[in-house]
Amino acid sequence: MRDKKILSYYGFSIFFPLFVWLPVFYQFQKLIGFSDFQIFSLQSFYYWFFLFIEIPTGWIADRFGYRNTLIAAAVFLIISHALVIAHPSYLFFALHYLFVALARSFASGTASAYLYGLLKINGRVNEYKKVEGAARSYGLAVKVFAWFFAGALMSWHLTLPYWLSLFSGALALLFVLSFVPQRKIRIKNSNKPMAFKQAVISLYHSPFYFLLMLQGVGVFVLARICQVNLFQPFLLERGFSVGSLGVMLSVMTIFEAIGSKQSFLLSKRFKDENAVFYLTALMAVCLFFLGKTELVQTSIVWITIGFALFSLAAGLAFPIQLKLLNDFIPHEDYRATYLSIESILGRAGCAFIIGLMGEVVSQGKTGVFFQSSALCVILGVLLVNQLIRFKIKKKQPL
């Protein structure tokens, strides 16, 4: 396999998720007149819509090809940003989130399935964790630069972050057009008419795999709460300027990139399923610390340390969790579908939690929300991890 195939995957991984507007979208929507209720209702809508389309889009990827599906994802991403630029109203923002959800759902699971299949057919599957971690870290490194200037860019021209995100989506489309077609990386090829139904039913007979998914949900929910949905109002409550939001997100991203790049090193000390649990626990402790400690309320140093350590743990956890899910796929032909199921569980948790955030933010209680979310997640993943260990100990069928 020529390295340019991996380089194309790196290019897609860098530009597809590069949302320049992410550090400032809360303030952007405030500036155009949205209330906290409207802002968080839109985010909740995004996750609920994602919830209903995630499994069907995973099945579409398995049936019609990973490359074709990723092309569609890039096109939807371009459309989503064009809508905000054309008319930044509540309706068009709802459509924006709808198309972002479509784009992310078509790519979620599909990109990972493409890379795993590409490496497996070339006898290099043992490199998956390293390549996936590197792709994630490169993407995060570019985000650091873009997000550092997000506040200044929005001050210069209100919609400029969305213009740059549209351009990034176009670059992602160029990279995905060079991907290897599905037929050249498929191990099996049994695209039966009932593939979707069979994939969903077969999960019932794979309880161990379902537990692995649930463990990953904890990582996903904590990361979204801390790094996307609440970090902006959390910092603004504590007197941070709009320009500093991008700087803080850049700091978080640097540490997440470091973790992603080095995640394969943890395999030398811990079993993957245990490593994910320990890292989730560390993330929960950091979130609880950010919400509870009085010193954190006024100290930029402690806030930065808390976010940085949280992001390092998240960066370490994601590639390990993806490797686990790919290694224990019950059926090769349904790889993207199965990977989408974990994503849908994560989005379901986020959709429920974010629906409560409007009231929390309006009352200035983001810190309390950090604490309660951390406690709920750690209790949940502790239970799931014990069940995983029990099944491994009893050597039950995977």
Notes on the protein architecture:
The structure is a single chain. With 398 residues, this protein is mostly helical. The protein is 78% helix and 0% strand. It contains 18 helices and no strands. α4 runs antiparallel to α5 and α11 packs parallel to α14. It starts with a helix and ends in a 5-residue tail after the last helix. The relative contact order is 0.16. Residues 187-194 have low confidence and may be disordered.
Regions with pLDDT < 50 over 5+ consecutive residues?
187-194
The tally of helices reads: 18
Morphology call: globular
Distance between the termini: 31 Å
**Major beta sheet summary:** none
**What value does the Rg take, in angstroms?**
20 Å
Could you give the topology of this structure?
Layout: H1 3-15, H2 25-31, H3 36-64, H4 66-86, H5 90-107, H6 110-121, H7 128-148, H8 150-156, H9 160-176, H10 195-204, H11 207-229, H12 231-237, H13 242-262, H14 272-292, H15 300-327, H16 335-354, H17 357-362, H18 366-393
Helix pairs in contact: 1-7, 1-9, 3-4, 3-5, 3-16, 4-5, 4-6, 4-9, 6-16, 7-13, 7-15, 11-14, 11-15, 11-16, 11-18, 13-15, 14-15, 14-18
Key terms for this structure?
single chain, 398 residues, mainly alpha
Summarize the model shown:
This protein is mainly alpha-helical and 398 residues long.
